[in-house]
Amino acid sequence: MTHRSDLHAGRFALGTRLRLRASAGARRLGMRVAAVLICSGAWLAWPGPVLASSGAVEATAAPAAGRLDETPRMAILSAFAPELELLRARLRDARVHTVQGVDFFTGQLEGRPVVLALSGISMVNAAMNTQLLFDRFRVTHLIFSGIAGGVNPELHIGDVSVPERWGQYLEVVMMREIAPGQYRAPASKGEFDFPPYGMMQPRAVRVRQAEGAGIQEKFWFEVDPQMLAVARSVQAVPLRGCDRQDRCLDKRPRLVVGGSGVSGQAFVDNADFRRYAFRTFRANVLDMESAACAQVAWRAGVPFIAFRSLSDLAGGGPGENEMNAFLHIAADNAAQVLLAFLRAWRD
């Protein structure tokens, strides 16, 4: 059984406080309790380890602070459960550690020590849980595996994109409208490297590396060159073109290494914005997590790469968004490329 001592302790403390008599002090306490309930709700609703595992999974009580073990591990993140399904099924000697409501699975994948976890969907969850991962494990490399919306019109559903750099397309200035359809950013915001989309002017983020010499402005966060080179070497990976009901894609999926990827806090299903993202950033794909993970990894000096398979065309298709129809094909294709990457990796 997964150990959740911190959560149980929090519930016990909450129940004790609710039994206090109603006084002025208790009413003030009740306000604090309400805040705890609101904040805790997000984690109580967080999905647990619902995926099948290769054999029994040993649960380990997590200490209040510090690393859970000292084994150097490659860390693998996915945003939500279906993206991690194939990798969890291949994990050997699995143990689960639960920290702040997040389950971290350690074990062996393709003969390598790894730790797997769900980042959660969107940028804040991804950044927060990437840092939690770095705090609790000895992470040598960070890998993201999952689905994405296709932006490059030359790519198709089921293709796997491995960008060489990631940026945040929704790090923007919302500009003042100075005339109908005309916008201007404050002069204090300086110069911009990219054209705007309406009132939204993309800009770099101000960042500082852990061992760096000061604050800098940075839009692109590059993946690790050695990891990218290994990804280029696994072009023969067999990718799925049909789902479990034998419904097949029009084109055979392929692996594309290089180019750009962008991330933001929006699910994009808009053909015009899709065209803008490709034209402006030369992006192959867009998603909701990779650039956040790349930035946290850059700050910590941890090599990073992301494998993203197209589940949809981000609004560029002829009908309804395709994600629900092709989610499992895309998730499995990204995971298959990651597994081939692990087999090809040499320390």
Automatic annotation (TrEMBL):
Q: What is this protein called?
A: 5'-methylthioadenosine/S-adenosylhomocysteine nucleosidase
Record GO terms (molecular function): catalytic activity
Q: Which Pfam families match?
A: PNP_UDP_1
The residues covered by the Nucleoside phosphorylase domain are 74-343
Q: Name one GO biological process term.
A: nucleoside metabolic process
Identify the SUPFAM superfamilies for this entry: Purine and uridine phosphorylases
